[in-house]
Structures are given as structure tokens and as C-alpha cells.
Amino acid sequence: MKNQKFGILLLLSSSLTFAQNKDTYEKTISPDDLKKHLTIISSDDMQGRDTGSEGQKKAGEYIVKQFKEYGLQPIVKTDNGELSYYQKFNLYKSGWKDAYVKINNTKKVFFKDYFPVGMVNIPEEKEIETVFVGYGIKAESRNDYSGKSIEGKAVIFMEGAPNNMEKPEEWEGSVGSKKKQKIAAELGAAFIFEVSNAESDQFKTLNAERKAILSRFNRMALEKSNAEKTTPSPAFVISKNMAADMIGISEKNLLKFLEGKKIKFPKDKTNIRVKSERGQDLVETSNIMGFIEGTDKKDEVVVLTAHYDHVGIDDKGQIYNGADDDGSGTCAILELAQAYSIAKANGHGPRRSILFMTVTGEEKGLLGSKYYTDVAPVIPLDKTIVDLNIDMIGRVDKKHESNPNYVYVIGSDKLSSELHRISEDANKNSINFELDYEFNSPTDPNKFYYRSDHYNFAKNKIPVIFYFTGVHEDYHKPGDDVEKILFEKYSSIVKLVFNTSWELANRDNKIVVDSNKP
């Protein structure tokens, strides 16, 4: 009986010591430390940390410097057999390279004077004759192509339809444009130019919007693309000023034509030269990781992730500093690494190993985490018990303006009900924030579960939690600066991640994968 009581007392004493140790290292996570790191990571000197940029490399150097100071081990094997903090690899950036329209000696600029419709690829400069066909309508009541040969030529037509036409709405908007482009292509047009009705300032706005939409064609990928599906009859939208130059009339006369007045068109043919070359550039980048080896369960690993890239600098020279997205996650990883390194130095290191990883390429399609899980996992995936991913935890969204003490928790119950319970308990026993599960719903229209780096672990049946505080007015804008970060709230969420990871790293049994929700 005495031995039984002694055993119970020993167990209680051990549990108390474990909790005291955890509390000691949790206290090392501070708003001041986070602010120090984030002020550097989101400074103008980092130039928005675009994937593969010099600014991102500077941020990476800072992260490695901290990992070294904390005593984290490098774990990536290099070609010469040494260990590194950098997991280097290449991405392939597809995009338009040399692209222009030359009218006489004047060069019109791609995505300024005009923009493409869809995937346009004209690798070699082509000289071609232009034909103006009014509104480009071919119907029973009107045929703008009557008496005109357009086979192999560049067709120019106005957007929409004249007001005096019956049912002009059939030829307006995107539906009307596609209809007219199809007609021109079927009649043999080599190139199609549609003249926008927008005024100069409106055209600039339209151009910028179109450029943002078509940025999906300027993508990065892990693999080099051999071929892209391009538009068979290349089409472009142009300004009225550019159209006038192509037709060989004044913009004033073009406006008269739009008003229904008769104008005199030149008899001489106008030739233009066109090029819209697509190509790929190699982009060198790297994931960065530091390792703390566990004690008696060191072969099992807890992974903590955040992406350290952002979107760089825009055409106007504005720097997108990305303090919240995802400087907040990056600096959280640094604070967590420091807390665990102090615990390790004091003889209270985690039972399981921990991999601290800041990944690249998230903004380009989760490419860094995909490279890690699909191509070159440094830790075997079957030894990885969980990924806790942090992406934007420093601000407040509109839903929670009256209560900043919250965090969205996404994915905790998707693969492991046990992980969900651990997360809930860690919150109750530490910061006691509102855990909002709105974006955890399978019907979430934002699909946030699929939009950050944890997903590449989840698709491999590794349980995950994604910590997130929502989208705000500065999301992917130049205003995402360090001055707007709520550091007390931010540090509390980092403490929640620490408490959750501490339990996962030190419990007797690894969490069980027992569910597979969509």
C-alpha cells in the first residue's frame, strides 16, 4: 500500500514539475521579442520578401542567424555531405517576356496601352496588315464584314454595338465580346483587337484589373513546363488612342465614328508588328529549417511551419511588407524555437523532436511545403506526427472588432479527434481565447483549409492545425505594416501554439489518426 501511495505521489510530483517547466518556457514568449523580430522581417530593407528575391534571401539570412544563436541544429544534407539550414531548390516562373505592338516607329506597351485576352503566345515578331470592321458584328440586320477580306489579317473592331441597332445588348459585355471574337476567328483573322469604350483613366483601371486576373498565367511551378495551351486566334483589348493609331486616323475622328457620324478612312493599308513572347525563368529559393532533437521519443517529430515569403514590390514601387502575412507566423516560429532551445539547454527538452520550418513559395501556390512533402522530406512523413502551421495571427478581422481575443482554428478535427481535444484543452489551460471554427467548415466558401502550407501535410494524412486571425483591409496591400500588429494578442496566440506543441511533443502516445473529413 505504501508503494502504491508513493507511486501516486511520484506521478503527481512529476506532473506538477512538467507543468511548472512548461510555464517557465512559455513566459519567454513576449510581445517585445516578437516586435523586435517583426520590425526587421517586415522592414523596407526586405523589399516585400517576394519568392526568390534578394529581399527574401535577406529575411532567410536573419532567420538562420536566430536559429544558430538558439542552438538549433541544421538538418538538410547538402551535395557535399554537410548539413545546412537551407533546403535549396528551383522554381520555374512562367510569364510574358518581350511583348509589344509596333505601329510605324511607335511601340505600344503590353499591359499599359493594351492587354491580352487569355493566354496569348507570339514568340516571333510578325508583321501584319490591319482591317477596321466597325463594331465587328455579323448578323441578319448588320454585317460589318461585307466586302472586306480579313483572312490572315489583324481585325480591329469597337466594343459593344451602335445605339441605333436592334437588340444592341446581344453584342455588349463579355458575352458580346466573345461572340465577336469567335466570328472574327471563324472568318480567318490572324489577330483580333477590340477597342475599349473606356476613357483614359478608366482604361488604366481596367488594365490593372485585367493584369491582376491574368497574373495566374505568370505563375511559378516546381516543374518546368514543356507547353502551355494558348489561344488559337490571339485577341487583345486596346485603348481608343491605340486604335486610332492602328487605323491611321485621329482619335477625334474615331470618337465621331462612335457618335454615328461618317468619317473618311485612309485608303492606304496600315501594317503593324506584333510580339507576345511567353517564357520561363529559373528562380532559386529555399525552405529554412532548424532542428531540436528529442529525448526518448526522438524518432517522432512535431513540425511547426510558417511561410516567410510575401508578394514583393508593385509596378509603382510600393513595398508590400507583409507584417501580418506572414511576418507574424515567421516571427512566431522564431519565438517558439527560442522557448524550446532554452528548455533544451536547461535539461527539459522535448521528448519528441521538433522541426522549425519557415517555407518559401506559399504565395505562389504552397510550393515550398509541397517540395518538402512531395519531393524531399527531410524527416520521413511516417515519422511526422503533426504540423502546426501559423499564417496571419497579428490583426483582427471585422467579425471580431469588439473581441480581439480569438483565433480561427482550422483542420484540428479533420484527421485526428485527439488533436482537436488537445487543442481545446491547451487553450482552456493557457490563454482561454475564443476558438472560432467558422473556416473549419467543409462548406467554407473561402476554402482556407486548402490555402496554406499545412494542407500539404494534411493531404499525406498528417494531422494539422492552422492558426489564423482572418483577412483584413490590408491583406496583400502595402498597408500590412508592423505598426498595425496587436502584439499582446499576437503573443498570446504564440503561447497557445507553444502549449499545444508542448503537449504533443511530450505525451506518452502520439496522436491517433482516426478520421478523414473533407
Overall description:
The chain has helices spanning 2-26, 31-41, 54-70, 173-186, 200-214, 240-247, 251-258, 323-345, 367-375, 417-428, 454-458, 487-506, and strands at residues 76-77, 83-84, 86-103, 106-109, 114-117, 122-132, 154-158, 191-195, 220-221, 235-238, 271-292, 297-307, 352-359, 384-390, 406-410, 434-436, 464-468. The radius of gyration is 29 Å and the shape is elongated. Helix 10 links the parallel strand 15 and strand 16 (434-436). Helix 2 (31-41) crosses helix 12 (487-506). Residues 8-14 have low confidence and may be disordered. The longest helix has 25 residues, at 2-26. With 518 residues, it is α/β, with parallel strands linked by helices.
Q: How many helices does DSSP assign?
A: 12
Classification by helices and strands? alpha/beta
Number of strands: 17
Radius of gyration from CA coordinates? 29 Å
Task: Give a quick account of the main beta sheet: strands, pairing sense, barrel closure.
Answer: 15 strands, mixed
Apparent shape: elongated
Question: What key attributes describe this structure?
Answer:
518 residues, alpha/beta, 15-stranded mixed beta sheet, two-stranded antiparallel ribbon, 12 helices, 32% helix, 23% strand
What is this structure, in a nutshell?
By secondary structure, the chain is α/β, with parallel strands linked by helices. 32% of the residues lie in helices and 23% in strands. Mean pLDDT is 92; it is low at 8-14.
